[in-house]
Prior knowledge:
binds dicarbonimidic diamide
Amino acid sequence: MVQIPAQPYEFALDPDKAALLIIDMQRDFVEPGGFGAALGNDVSLLRSAIAPLEALLAAARQAGLFIMHTREGHKPDLSDLHETKRIRGRGAMTIGDRGPMGRILVIGEPGHDIIPELYPVAGEPVIDKPGKGAFYNTELSDIIAERGLTQLIVCGVTTEVCVHTTVREANDRGIECLVLSDCTASYFPDFHVAALRMIAAQGGIFGWVSDSQSAIAALAEPAEPADS
Ligand code: C5J
């Protein structure tokens, strides 16, 4: 076990049973012309998470931590897209429409891909998810069960939407989640702060909150045996 300073109290990381889960660091959310922009957001607000995530990803790879990435998106025929989601927002552009980075939020299009700074390497599963949560209609539960994982370090975008939904789903499945504040971001800075507070409030009702520096320092430490 490695102790990571966190809110509401320290997180006892068991690196053999933990994974880093990076949520939706896709061009469609962080670059102009994608899904985030189509909904009227200032996508530059999400870029603060990129540098801390790069450092965390390097440290996690160095430590041999299991790493997974998710991408929100839909099949080219949109058969996995609820009409309610397609029309939500009433914007001029919506999911499946063609924009500067290809069809918005469609698997295989340039905008759907993960940004180059955080690109997955061999051995890091990439989970395509049609919803906001990473468990809905995906293979994530199977991967977690197969590997005997009980803890997730959850990062990515956006804090109050896909990160939060995934943490809530994981928590209800008995998985402990540690969210790193600087490795997540929102189009709404006040939502980011509130979402993190909600996770750690009430004794950690959804999980724990820490930051990249604390996690990176912990990953560099040799783990104590779990029963010590
Ligand atoms: C959103 C996400 N915000 N990845 N998706 O629609 O948070």
